[in-house]
Amino acid sequence: MRFEVSPPSGSSFYALQLDLSPDGQYLALPLTTETRRTVWVRSIDSTELRELPGTENVDHPFFSPDGRHVAFFAEGRLKVADLAGGPPATIAEGVAASGGDWHGDMILFGQPPNGIFRLPASGGTPVPVTFIDTTRGDRGHAWPSILPDGRRFLYFVSNAKPEHRGIYLGSLDGAPSVMVQASASMGAYAEPGVLLFARDGTLFARAFDPDLPQQETPAVRLADGVGAHPTNGRLAVAVSDRILAVRSSDPIEPRRLEWHTAEGQDLGPVGGLPTDAYQSVSLSPGGRDAVVTRVNSRGEGDILLVDLQRGVAVAAAPDLADESMPLWRPDGAAIVYSSNRDGQFALYHRTIVDGTERRIGSMAGVRLAATDWTPDGKSLLVKASKNSGAPLDIWLVPADEPTREPQLIVTGPDNQQDAELSPDGRWITYASSESGRSEVFIQAYPPTGRRWLASTSGGVEPHWSPDGNQLYFLGPGWQLVRVAVRRVPGALDLGSPLLLQVSVPAIVGLQENRYAVAADGRLLTLTAVQNRRPAPVALVLNWRTLLPWDQRDR
Rounded to the nearest 5 degrees, what angle is found at the Cα of 99, between the Cα atoms of 94 and 103? Predict the structure, then answer.
């Protein structure tokens, strides 16, 4: 028996995340709306999804052994929520979100770009149980799955060399880890003795004996079109003894580049440029060209240089891994962008004419992207985490002085991001989530003292007008908002937010800059050509009947 679970109206599933309680009674998954991302739970016996309070900004939820609690990552913390209600409890600080599993009084979780960590379920200090080996190309360990004996566990090794990339068996007693399945994504274990893994979007199962981990056994195909992350190994699969939950990747939404007046009037698409899976856009200083991120067939980003007058696009950076968030240098001679070609995201500077490229500084992280240049072109405003489990902060990163350390500009208890300097360099605008939802602020630069709230009902991705007298940002429903900014002695006088009749597509993650403001005041936006329907979660009951060697459900 098979049935599907779709998100409620006005929401969508977040990334490829889902989990089943060990008894298969409950399904947990993050849902996003216009302003929030929280855990929702559904009983298999019900048709309703219900939200767990206090789970804002959730990442990678997973169940307790008794199915009565859900652990999840949020804002650099590991928290536990009770299905019966009540505020979640924080059990660890400064941890990343790369999958977790709970067995007895023990939690294992991945902390990229490091190994797997162990933590008491009651809280405490995480202790590493695996260690990455950079000499063999390890990029990180993630997605642990604890076996029934509570001593051994499966986990995914991301490695630069395909022959070392796959699913490994580790042990808490210090025994050497061994590869049990070559794979580009994580595995899942079902008792007794079944290993689930994916290959080229197809989910397979095979018999697996932890005592003979490298024994080869025939595999059976279970499902096609299963969602898998192209770089971090996340697989949209959860399994219990009687239920299998799978989800496909969402279809790539076709988009086009469109021009609008400063007031939001539609001026039409960029002529000649085909629709594609564009994710971010940055305009050259003169407005003739743009650089955009486009999602390729592997689900990774490519950087394109677009001639806006002729509607022609060519590659602007090498396709080595996941490249994203390109940004023009103020003189128009070069771009900077993020790439994870070495395992973590770092910044790369590339000249337009001859393609000369260099890495900027030593700053790297799981989440890292440049959002603006200083007017002199010597430094970058960058959103990045202080460590792999921390919220985003805003940093000033030297572009041409590798020995000079990055400087922390704006920090807080939650994400601080999307910073941009005013044209005269005297003011900085950014988005902060410290109130529980993202709002847009303006502050003198360097940031000191008072700040002014530009948004009134949520906002992200602020950009200045060319004269600095207007501020744009995305409000609820990803609709463009404009606010007049008037300088008065020692302060700012902000006008009321004006909604423009322009909306941009929703995008998960750091792939932002969904619009740009040209030097002549026009707006260049990403526009969805059609609304996509999120892929549902498919639940397969008595999935073991698909296994020719297993007769328990026949």
Answer: 100
Question: Are residues 304 and 335 both part of a single domain?
Answer: yes
Whether residue 277 is found in the same domain as residue 424: yes
Give the tens place of pLDDT for each residue, 513-526: 899 999 999 999 99
- In the β-sheet with 188-190, what is the strand arrangement from edge to edge? 188-190, 194-199, 202-207, 219-223
* C-alpha dist (Å) from residue 319 to 142, 303, 357: 25, 8, 13
Q: Same domain for 352 and 228?
A: no
Q: Tens digit of pLDDT for each residue in 333-356?
A: 999 999 988 777 889 999 999 999
Domain range for residue 129?
A: 2-250+534-546
Query: Which residues neighbour 424 within 8 Å (Cβ) at sequence distance 6 or greater?
Result: 375, 468
Quote the number of domains for the chain: 2
Q: Is residue 62 part of a domain?
A: yes
Decide if 17 contacts 59 (C-beta within 8 A). Answer: yes
Same domain, yes or no: 128 and 172: yes
Cβ atoms of 132 and 138 closer than 8 Å: yes
Q: Is residue 422 part of a domain?
A: yes
Question: From CA 7, how far away is CA 17, in angstroms rounded?
Answer: 13
Q: Three-class SS of residue 423?
A: coil
For residue 198, how many other CB atoms are within 10 A of its CB?
25
The candidate with the shortest Cα–Cα distance to 15, out of 99, 78, 93, 87, is: 99
